[in-house]
Amino acid sequence: MSFSRITKLELLNYEIEDDSCCLSFLSGLFHSCGEISRNGGKLGISIVTDIQELYPYCQKIIKRLYGDDLEIELGDNFTINKNTYYEIIFPMNSSEQILLDTGLIERCESGYNINFNIDRNIIFEEDCKKLFVRGVFIGSSTSSIRLSEVQSIKTASGYHLEFTSHSHDFIIDFSSVLAECNIMGNIVERKNLYVLYLKDVNTIIDLLALIGANEGVLALSNEIITRELRNKVNRQVNCINANINKTVEASMKQVNAINIINSTIGIESLPEDLQEVAVLRLANQEESLDELLKLSTIQLTRSGLAHRFRKLIKIANELGEDK
Questions:
Q1: Residues 79, 207 share a domain
Q2: d(Cα 169, Cα 191) in Å, to the nearest integer?
Q3: What is the chain's percent helix, strand, coil content, to nearest 5?
Q4: Do residues 122 and 135 lie in contact, with contact meaning Cβ atoms separated by under 8 Å?
Q5: Closest Cα partner for 80 from 45, 47, 49, 35?
Q6: What is d(CA 182, CA 203) in angstroms, rounded to the nearest whole number?
């Protein structure tokens, strides 16, 4: 299950207590995934979503605001990219008032105008603004974020969350609303859609905190720690592997040099200090310099031991040139 879907389901667990905040939530929902229709001179409203749990949530809000006689129908479902979508249909005789109350339409001389801009009266209060953003999040947000199930399993996804809309006016207005909450996004046009996206993980966390997705904030914060820890371990492992490779390469070079000396003039012809380190290396070909120092009976420093190996390599090179 995607991070975005998990967060949406979390948000649907929180009941909205204030009536004006309920309208703000519905307004954000209609702006982001609503469809307005006209039938016989009457306006209708429906929302399309892949979150089936949104049906009872909206039903409870509508009954609270407009009475028990109002019903929400679950329309025929359809599938896109293996995701099942549902159409939640609001009764035609009540849709007009809902659209007026949520700022989606306004009366004019010819009837009604659809308002693609955000009605600022709907989000005048800070709490209402947060619930409006929550409605937009549930209605149109998608994310490429994948949480790590196990620390050892690497996730290739970055931190990306976006909102899409067919209305340029709305996406510009929504960007301004987020900016008022110190959440800065970028807008691009993609396949006849307008996209507002966030890529900075701290900005995404601020957005989740704004809409009250506390579990989402915690999960994403833990994901940051997990990835940082994994990257640190990987860097340490890479460093260790590099050191091992360096040790093996140096040891092979030293062993080859000693073998050349042994096959030409013999190790016994070397000075005693070089003889000991030569024999020590041949007997411990995979050990590092630090380990060789522990095995040596001569009091040497690490740089002193390395210096003697350089002498052996130089002698071997000269013997090879002579040969």
A1: yes
A2: 17
A3: 55, 15, 30
A4: no
A5: 49
A6: 9
Amino acid letter, 89: I
For the full predicted model, state whether its pTM sits above 0.90. no
> Rounded to whole angstroms, how far apart are CA atoms 250 and 12?
62
> CB atoms < 10 A from the CB of 9, how many?
15
CA distances to 36, 101, 109, 287, 311 from 197, rounded to whole Å, are 26, 29, 38, 53, 62
Q: Do 277 and 202 belong to one domain?
A: no
- DSSP code, position 267: G
What confidence tens digit (pLDDT) does each residue in 71-115 have?
A: 666 666 666 666 778 888 887 778 888 999 999 988 877 778 888
Separation of CA 12 from chain center: 22
Identify whether 32 is part of a domain.
Answer: yes
Instruction: Assess if residue 225 is contained within a domain.
Output: no
CA-wise closest residue to 148 among 206, 237, 222: 222
Other CB atoms closer than 10 Å to residue 176's CB: what's the count?
10
Whose CA is closest to 187, among 201, 203, 173, 202? 173
Q: Which residues of 275-314 are buried (b: 16+ CB within 10 A; e: fewer)?
A: bbbbebbeeeeebbbeebbeeeeeebeeeebbebbebbbe
- Asked if 152 and 14 sit in the same domain, the reply is yes
Fill in the amino acid letter for 20.
S
For the record, the structure tokens of 4 come out as 């975005």
Which stretch of DSSP H or E encloses residue 42? Answer: strand 42-49
Q: Which of 185, 184, 47, 19 minimizes the C-alpha distance to 104?
A: 47
The 3-state DSSP class for residue 117 equals coil
Residue indicated by tokens 């989606």: 104
- Cα–Cα distances in Å, from 92 out to 96, 109, 144, 220? 7, 22, 37, 41
Largest CA distance in the chain: 112
Check whether residue 7 and residue 91 sit in a common domain: yes
Regions in the chain scoring below 50 on pLDDT: 69, 150-152
What range defines the domain where residue 22 resides? 3-212
For residue 16, give the DSSP letter.
P
Query: Does one domain contain both 205 and 270?
Result: no
